[in-house]
Hints:
Layout lengths: L1 H9 L5 H8 L5 H14 L7 H26 L1 H7 L14 H20 L1 H18 L9 H25 L5 H20 L5 H7 L4 H5 L1 H25 L3 H23 L1 H32 L2
Helix pairs in contact: 3-4, 3-8, 3-14, 4-6, 4-7, 4-8, 6-7, 7-8, 8-9, 9-12, 9-14, 12-13, 12-14, 13-14
Amino acid sequence: MARQAFKSFAKPAVPLLAIVELLKPITWFAPMWAFACGIISSGVAVSDRLVEVTLGVLLAGPLVCGTSQAVNDWFDRHVDAINEPHRPIPSGRLPGDLGLTIAMAWTALSAVVALSLGWWIFVAALIGLALAWAYSAPPLRLKLNGWYGNLAVAGCYEGLPWFTGAAIMVGALPDWSTILIALLYSVGAHGIMTLNDFKAVHGDRQMGVRSLPVQLGVKSAARLACIVMAAPQLVVCMLLWSWGLTTHAAIVLALLIIQLFLMRRFLRQPKDLAPWYNATGTLLYVLGMLAAAFGLAQLTGTA
């Protein structure tokens, strides 16, 4: 009896590992990287706002991004029960409405943390949280259409975290040049989101998910993804050059040229090579983000 009582006490009522799995830490990297670019682009030393930066990192990754993952898994639980029954909700490791409860609690916690960091951060977080729910939850379910769904994810993963990082550092609305660059990289990220859709074309077609490969065909969607990724980077290059940041413009342009060579190979077999290009081309894309952020730091630091 004593041993059974001890085991019952030692075993947590809520499986923490299942909660962590629900929040998918591997997905936090992209918004946290964009958040870091926002910090760098401000030109303000991290040591000046260390507490705020720490809270911002938590907000961008575990909180807002984690919320989006929890919301998505809850509203996809019936599909996951067929395709991925090992996930925390369909497997029963998060029983009842616990998955929905976590999604709602994480939404509220995200809003509270964002409010503590300032008005502009709060507004950005609310937009991100609204998009997270709209992406997965009925009646909107933006994920069912590649045009809207990919745009929502791109904004949440790139533009809003970048804006948040810069706003935290300056304690106000970031400079217009920072907002413009963040917006351009958000547009480009729409193409990255399309790359993720090539792996599930057959399943999406069966489930009625109108991803861009389903709507346009694999080859046309691949060409569109490449154009959408490349065009904003070219505009970034021109802007950096016009602002006198020639070295940073040259770095972004060089990274873009390498991507164009990789795109040529990707377009020959888009469905098979999408994971390869996602690993190689996307890496160059985010390195370009970093180069642009360092350029903006010089620009905003002298403004």
